[in-house]
Write a structure and sequence with these properties.
Blueprint: E1 3-7, H1 13-25, E2 28-31, H2 41-49, E3 68-76, E4 79-80, H3 82-91, E5 98-104, H4 110-123, E6 127-134, H5 135-140, H6 143-154
Parallel strand pairs: 1-2, 1-3, 3-5, 5-6
Antiparallel strand pairs: 3-4
Helix pairs in contact: 1-6
The protein binds flavin mononucleotide.
């Protein structure tokens, strides 16, 4: 299965999960680039909350050439990050199959489940799987096992492989 992991990460958490997934899935990886580093958290949160599309740099991998695209975003103000909103809107007609993951600061996955569902809605495709990872799991490296289990399920392999 030809797989792409596409993600946006401002402070590295989503990047680390993306890299763990890509390794297990033997996937190509696309880091979405946006100018959000120059903006304050309040402004970013407001933009995400208002579903504003951020400007993103030209991506390098064509989603249409993959069997599965796994898209990852941090949770911002309970929503997907603005760069991922742009990526999904730009590519929704290109995906063959999709799965989603997010990282979030607050423990518990209630808000992130809603956010992952909104990514699915925007993609226009039924998701093959969804994963949420709390930021403190990323700090403790517990995310690696979680990411591997998720990736194994996507590959329909036993998680021990
Ligand atoms: C603008 C902004 C808004 C955020 N809003 C939320 C939120 O609503 N809920 C939450 O659990 N975490 C929130 N966070 C925390 C991030 O989701 C969390 O730190 C995430 O792992 C960051 O991913 P990154 O390191 O890949 O950028 C927010 C962070 C930022 C910068």
């Amino acid at each position: 299965m030809k797989t792409l992991v596409a993600y946006y990460s401002r402070t590295g958490n989503t990047k680390r999960v993306a890299e763990a997934l890509a390794e297990t899935l033997n996937a190509d990886i696309e880091a979405i680039v946006s100018d959000t580093k120059d903006k304050g958290m309040g402004r970013l949160a407001m933009q995400a909350f208002l579903r504003v599309h951020a400007k993103i740099a030209q991506t390098t991998n064509d989603p249409a050439s993959y069997d599965l695209v796994v898209v990852g975003s941090p949770v911002w103000a309970g929503k997907m990050s603005s760069p991922i909103r742009t990526y999904l809107a730009q590519n929704k007609d290109e995906f063959t199959s999709v799965a989603f993951f997010c990282t979030h600061g607050q423990p518990g996955s209630e808000g992130s489940a809603k956010m992952l569902e909104s990514m699915e809605t925007l993609s226009g495709k039924k998701s093959a799987g969804m994963l949420d990872v709390a930021a403190n799991d990323v700090e403790s490296a517990a995310y690696v096992e979680k990411a591997k289990r998720f990736a194994a399920a996507l590959l329909e392999l036993p998680s021990s492989q």
